[in-house]
Predict the 3D structure of the following.
Amino acid sequence: MGRAVSVATCALNQWALDFEGNLERIFRSIDIAKRRGARYRLGPELEICGYGCSDHYYESDTLLHSFQVLAKLLESPATQDIICDVGMPVLHRNVRYNCRVIFLNKKILLIRPKISLANAGNYRELRWFTPWSKARHVEEYFLPRIIQEVTGQETVPFGDAVLATKDTCLGTEICEELWAPNSPHIEMGLDGVEIFTNSSGSHHVLRKAHTRVDLVNSATAKNGGIYILANQKGCDGDRLYYDGCAMISMNGETVAQGSQFSLDDVEVLVATLDLEDVRSYRAEISSCNLAASKVNPYPRVKVNFALSCSDDVAVPTCMPIQWRHHSPEEEISLGPACWLWDYLRRSKQAGFLLPLSGGIDSSATACIVYSMCHQVCLAVKNGNADVLADARKIVNDETYVPEDPREFCKRVFTTCYMASENSSQDTCNRAKLLAEQIGSYHINLNIDAAVKAIVGIFSMVTGRTPCFSVYGGSNRENLALQNVQARIRMVLAYLFAQLTLWTRGMPGGLLVLGSANVDESLRGYLTKYDCSSADINPIGGISKTDLKNFIQYCIENFQLTALRSIMSAPPTAELEPLVDGQVAQTDEADMGMTYAELSIYGKLRKIAKAGPYSMFCKLINMWKEICTPREVASKVKHFFRMYSINRHKMTTLTPSYHAENYSPDDNRFDLRPFLYNTTWSWQFRCIDKQVNAL
């Protein structure tokens, strides 16, 4: 009898509503899986339409085009003699479900709707879909005519069932169901299911990959089995980067690992595994065997097909491997770089422009672009024809081959140091040296004339001229003069992004990159509509602490020695006058808190769900060695005052790469009011009462 089953999973760089491109990538994955001997192919969640369709799921067009793509797959000879498992939205009895459609040889075997929907953080599946709540129940689904014409079927099974092939039994999970406390694989395993599949739309978060891997391995560690996970990869149209990590696990150990970050649009893993290893593993787990005798059985869809060959004694099977995780610094180097590449090629722009100040944040952003250039050159060297074709379109040269990251960087990356009378020569030199080392096309300009012109208009109209506080001006005057500089930089950034290539005799425009980190956004330490207002921001979800570690990583791995002086310099906005030619203004003094403190506030506010009083209660214990309760109270009050005063800035925050779970992104992730009672009178009174008691 057959023992060795060959199965395939994949990570596909799908794009929301790109039905043509999505179909082509699905076909490529099936072709690769078949050529490598697989008899079953699993794809990512909602791969036909792309996961990030959002409110387009409401449109009948999305359903129609998904079925049109499914018809193309069903009728193609490429999908013959392999079980194909694809994801798409399906309307059943006027209710929309997130489904897997499993088919073989022009026949749909089962449509399996998602049971547990993801609805936290960046996920809003309950907005568009309904969970299937009828456990172990199957209904008839009436196929649309375009599918009936291909399959000859009028109805197919729809619901919570498993597939019984000639040699084994397969059960389906979809993304969130693996993370749920009552995951279906538990009872499916007790009911004799040997192969579990999971189609995911799981996005990157720093330090998250190990959690997903541990969940997959633990799914089969307790009761044996084979677990296959597919995931989307890349930027499919918004702030998220889906980070691949397709994998296959057996009996609690990883046997195949896909990449977390790469520029390959299609990545396929194939593993051949011995079913007898599953059966022998389960044989001695008496507690599971006893529980199995009581389990409520799943409906089985019989499939006249085998995942193994009848004579497979000599077929080699896969052995366990050790999963290699990236460090957080590697994740920052690779994840946002891949996201930038997807955004650049899909937006059909000619490159990026970055206001480079010579500080840590803009320098980290520049390093991420440089890392992207490294990834492009490496992909081309490894024979990636898609990346080569995209690079040629971007630089408008059909014969171009990117080989040197610095040379490619010169073509696609413009940096711009915008000096004012408040800028130091040190930051100017640091920006210039870093630009030389990464190879960007660098511009030096001075904004003083524009600042004087704007302030001059104000003075002419009002008869008053504002002054910086060091010259006797009020706080209002001081802040307004800083904001004028910051906003002029934004206007100039967009002007140069649109016309710099024109001045160089080159076609196209540039995307403007922002460089405000997650902590500054949380605190509101930025000018609304300044040069943090950009097209996209690759570091907007990353903390200052992680960015400093990333800078150190770049010094060591990219040999960017210019970063050493940037690392050692205190962060400063350089918007107030110099004192004796030296910078007197620093970020942490301006903010009234350190970046380390900001990270703690951010995690407590978002991840620990702490309001002012709860945050105070947690911090008096965390900081008991360094602060009195009254000092803690003062710090917490100051943070919440500043956070609430500046929350309105989050409504216009530049779309940022999502990397951190305490991001204040107002678009989808962190939904809060933006007009607060900033006195927090009741909350702060509770804190004061506790301080007095202590």
Observations:
- Residues 4-302 form a domain with the Nitrilase/N-carbamoyl-D-aminoacid amidohydrolase fold (CATH 3.60.110.10).
